[in-house]
Design a protein that fits this description.
The chain is mainly alpha-helical. It has helices spanning about 15-35, 45-55, 60-70, 75-85, 105-130, 135-155, and strands spanning about 90-95, 95-105. GO terms for molecular function: DNA binding; DNA-binding transcription factor activity.
Length: about 160
């Protein structure tokens, strides 16, 4: 029996199932379409998410990143080391605890994140332009609720 078997099986037509399916498709479409603008792009999604987090919350410890992203500390440490080697992040001593280090965006990391963000914004803007005015209005109206839902899901960790 898989982990999914222990959960209530989602059914097509269920609001939660429909939302999950739409989000999954959006993420997949964005990931693959951004490669059209950046054929050189090799940032794994986990690294993009870390860069986004570090831009919002500069100077996190590896343990903080692991907790916030619900990942094992050793996995995060490996990803951070890869990002260090790629010049995307830097480490600094924690001024409150000299034994600890903080992870910060480097200028290269910030530039790559902003280029990645702009590419995604262009892709989304183009797709939104193909929708009807009513569909765009519905998406605009849904964004605050989706942000609140994401926050609630983060709070449950």
């Amino acid at each position: 029996m898989t982990e999914v078997d222990y959960l209530t099986e989602p059914t097509p037509g269920d609001d939660a199932w429909a939302l999950t399916a739409a989000i999954t498709q959006l993420r997949r479409s964005l990931r693959s379409s951004v490669r059209e603008d950046f054929t050189w792009e090799s940032l794994p999604m986990a690294q993009v998410e870390f860069l986004q987090r570090l831009e919002r919350e500069p100077g996190l410890r590896i343990g903080d990143l692991a907790r916030k992203h619900r990942m094992a500390v050793n996995t995060v440490s490996t990803l951070v080391n890869q990002m260090l080697k790629a010049g995307l992040v830097v480490r600094e001593s924690d001024p409150d605890d000299k034994r600890a280090v903080l992870v910060l965006l480097s200028e290269e990391g910030r530039a790559r994140l902003h280029a990645w963000t702009r590419a995604n914004e262009r892709r989304i803007s183009a797709a939104l332009g193909d929708l009807t005015a009513d569909q765009r209005a519905a998406i605009d109206a849904a964004v605050p609720a989706l942000a609140a839902l994401a926050e609630r899901l983060d709070d449950r960790s």
